[in-house]
């Protein structure tokens, strides 16, 4: 995971002298023009980025092509009308056959969708519309593009379920246009053989249709350590390298070595390189297997005990967390209960859901975060309106002061009720707290509801800088390094192009962490970390040195971290 | 021209799976069949895109039409299909 502390090679180091553990550019890039004027070698021998995980794999590249721009209206046809019609219909048939093939290996629900898409590609009315256009002298690509227009409009006009199918139609159209133009089909590639997925970036919509059992590794040109790809890779234990400049130049099907530990992508590697890299990864894996067992706390250099806890979304994650050796939960994201419903979950539904998690950790600890909402994740019963900048808007605890306070009251009451006679201890914290006054307001509410320990998330630099005052009002704090990094570095977490700035290991972020940990030590109050930084072995060691008392992460990351910290 | 008027039984209407099942059956039929609903032009029952575009909801009435030898049988089969729940 060394890459987690270093910038992608074509970008300037984040902060020259002060940034820790950023090797000299020449060292990282193998002399391939890093930092200098863009001299992209025709066949770069190594590409570097930010590694997620520690595994190394060898496999064929499957490129996720970006959709092409629409073919221009005046595009010259390659032949006469008959020839163009033939090209257009052949492209549609290729797409239909591909969809059918994928339907054959998909689950029943996905198969229905894929088969319906294949039927659309073979639709006789669509073929008629294509022919009418090619007969009028329109080029095949453009004819395919325009032929979809009428159907697209009809579906869009219907709205509702059919309106949502417009995206399916657009996906189909982009595929057929690409095939007609002799280019790879856009979208998540489907292969029989396991592959290394190479993409510009991955959105949740892409990974939802991705069969992860066939994915050996994820490699993206954009994205940082907290990007969707990185979080998915950690959660599923798939090695990944993100923020890899130049990776889209790899050829589809080319063999690459992906070494997540060093943040390396090696195209067409020599045999001895493959053998050495795989041997190193195997040694790491074995060290993790022998050192990663166990469930106890880690012992810091000064003799303090540091708990390794799991991030969970609900009862469904408990088994994986326990199997990974977590004796508790450092971040229970309660918002999953609230998503996808038109009304807030009832008191009883909440008690049952919270209890399910508490029951999984007898003798342990569960830290629940109250509902985290914002304009970027709107809930039907919590309309926060449009905001020009949701990251700086009415979000987290801010959303529950005023009209929606009753939602928080119900949640606190349900959490308190779930904790009665539960086998695990329950702590409850509020997200996105900025001031000591907010901290005091929340703690008073939580205590009044019957919750024994009330705390706050430290994600806002203001709260970190006034940690003494904030912690004085509560029983504990947990540092959310993803948002703390975003706000400290003024770099949007969702912007792949700012991956290099989304560095939780930057001294600016680490100094804030140190302030909070020191305040906790003075006041005798626990201070945990529950961002992605906690899962990075080198960063985790630094966080422990700074004085944090627990680290919470995706369950899949726990054994490896335990092994790294105990060796 | 022979026709059948039928209420669509599937709760989701002629969307998703029911639409695909119906269009597949119509494509396999010996004769071309059209399907229409009130206020919209008849469309080919072999076109999934056109059938979806009709936006037929559960319980709505549609008119099936076909012409030629065996039209009655073809219509009978397709009409019966629409009175079944095709969501399963």
TrEMBL record, chain B:
<protein>
    <recommendedName>
        <fullName>Phosphocarrier protein HPr</fullName>
    </recommendedName>
</protein>
<comment type="function">
    <text>General (non sugar-specific) component of the phosphoenolpyruvate-dependent sugar phosphotransferase system (sugar PTS). This major carbohydrate active-transport system catalyzes the phosphorylation of incoming sugar substrates concomitantly with their translocation across the cell membrane. The phosphoryl group from phosphoenolpyruvate (PEP) is transferred to the phosphoryl carrier protein HPr by enzyme I. Phospho-HPr then transfers it to the PTS EIIA domain.</text>
</comment>
<dbReference type="InterPro" id="IPR000032">
    <property type="entry name" value="HPr-like"/>
</dbReference>
<feature type="domain" description="HPr">
    <location>
        <begin position="1"/>
        <end position="88"/>
    </location>
</feature>
<dbReference type="InterPro" id="IPR001020">
    <property type="entry name" value="PTS_HPr_His_P_site"/>
</dbReference>
<dbReference type="InterPro" id="IPR050399">
    <property type="entry name" value="HPr"/>
</dbReference>
<dbReference type="Pfam" id="PF00381">
    <property type="entry name" value="PTS-HPr"/>
</dbReference>
<dbReference type="InterPro" id="IPR035895">
    <property type="entry name" value="HPr-like_sf"/>
</dbReference>
<dbReference type="GO" id="GO:0009401">
    <property type="term" value="P:phosphoenolpyruvate-dependent sugar phosphotransferase system"/>
</dbReference>
<keyword id="KW-0598">Phosphotransferase system</keyword>
<dbReference type="GO" id="GO:0005737">
    <property type="term" value="C:cytoplasm"/>
</dbReference>
<keyword id="KW-0963">Cytoplasm</keyword>
């Amino acid at each position: 995971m060394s890459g987690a502390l270093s910038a992608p090679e074509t970008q300037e180091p984040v902060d020259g002298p002060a940034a820790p553990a950023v090797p000299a550019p020449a060292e990282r890039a193998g002399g391939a023009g890093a930092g200098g004027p863009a001299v992209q070698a025709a066949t770069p021998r190594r590409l570097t980025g930010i590694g997620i995980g520690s595994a190394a794999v060898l496999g064929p590249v499957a490129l996720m092509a970006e959709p092409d721009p629409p073919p221009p209206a005046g595009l010259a046809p390659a032949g006469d009308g008959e020839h163009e019609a033939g090209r257009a219909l052949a492209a549609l048939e290729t797409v239909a056959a591909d969809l059918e093939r994928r339907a054959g290996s998909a689950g029943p629900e996905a198969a229905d969708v894929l088969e319906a898409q294949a039927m659309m590609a073979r639709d006789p009315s669509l073929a008629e519309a294509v022919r009418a256009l090619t007969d009028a002298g329109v080029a095949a690509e453009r004819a395919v593009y325009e032929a979809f227009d009428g159907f697209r409009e009809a579906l869009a006009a219907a709205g509702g379920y059919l309106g949502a199918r417009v995206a399916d139609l657009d996906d189909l159209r982009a595929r057929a246009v690409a095939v007609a133009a002799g280019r790879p089909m856009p979208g998540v590639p489907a292969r029989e053989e396991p592959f290394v997925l190479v993409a510009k970036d991955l959105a949740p919509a892409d990974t939802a249709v991705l069969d992860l059992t066939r994915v050996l590794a994820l490699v993206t040109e954009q994205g940082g350590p907290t990007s969707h790809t990185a979080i998915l890779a950690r959660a599923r234990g798939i090695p990944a390298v993100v923020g890899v400049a130049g990776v889209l130049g790899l050829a589809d099907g080319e063999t690459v070595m992906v070494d997540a530990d060093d943040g390396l992508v090696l195209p067409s590697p020599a045999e001895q390189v493959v053998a050495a890299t795989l041997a190193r990864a195997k040694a790491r894996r074995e060290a993790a297997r022998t050192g990663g067992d166990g469930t106890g706390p880690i012992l810091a250099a000064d003799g303090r005990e540091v708990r390794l806890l799991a991030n969970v979304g609900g009862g469904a994650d408990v088994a994986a967390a326990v199997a990974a050796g977590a004796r508790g939960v450092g971040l229970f994201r309660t918002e999953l209960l609230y998503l996808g419903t038109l009304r807030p979950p009832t008191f009883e539904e909440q008690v049952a859901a919270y209890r399910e998690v508490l029951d999984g950790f007898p003798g342990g600890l569960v830290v629940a975060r109250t509902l985290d909402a914002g304009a970027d994740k709107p809930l039907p019963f919590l309309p926060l309106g449009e905001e020009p900048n949701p990251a700086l808007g009415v979000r987290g605890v801010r959303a529950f002061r005023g009209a929606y306070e009753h939602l928080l009251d119900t949640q606190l009451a349900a959490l308190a009720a779930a904790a009665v006679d539960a086998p695990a201890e329950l702590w409850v914290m509020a997200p996105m707290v900025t001031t000591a006054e907010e901290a005091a307001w929340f703690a008073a509410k939580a205590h009044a509801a019957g919750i024994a320990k009330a705390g706050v998330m430290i994600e806002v630099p203001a709260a970190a800088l006034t940690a003494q005052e904030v912690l004085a009002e509560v029983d504990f704090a947990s540092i959310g390094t993803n948002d703390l990094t975003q706000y400290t570095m003024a770099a949007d977490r969702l912007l792949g192009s700012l991956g290099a700035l989304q560095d939780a290991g930057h001294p600016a972020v680490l100094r804030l962490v140190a302030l909070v940990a020191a305040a906790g030590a003075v006041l005798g109050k626990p201070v945990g970390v529950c961002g992605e930084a906690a899962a990075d072995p080198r960063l985790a060691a630094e966080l422990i040195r700074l004085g944090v008392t627990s680290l919470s992460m995706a369950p899949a990351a726990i054994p490896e971290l335990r092994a790294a910290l105990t060796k | 021209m022979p026709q059948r008027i039928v209420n669509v039984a599937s709760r989701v209407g002629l969307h998703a799976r029911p639409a695909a099942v119906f269009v597949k059956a119509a494509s396999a039929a010996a004769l071309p069949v059209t399907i229409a609903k009130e206020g919209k032009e008849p469309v080919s029952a072999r076109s999934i895109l056109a059938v979806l575009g009709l936006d037929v909801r559960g319980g709505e009435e549609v008119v099936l039409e076909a012409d030629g030898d065996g039209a009655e049988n073809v219509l009978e089969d397709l009409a019966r299909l629409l009175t079944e729940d095709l969501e399963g």
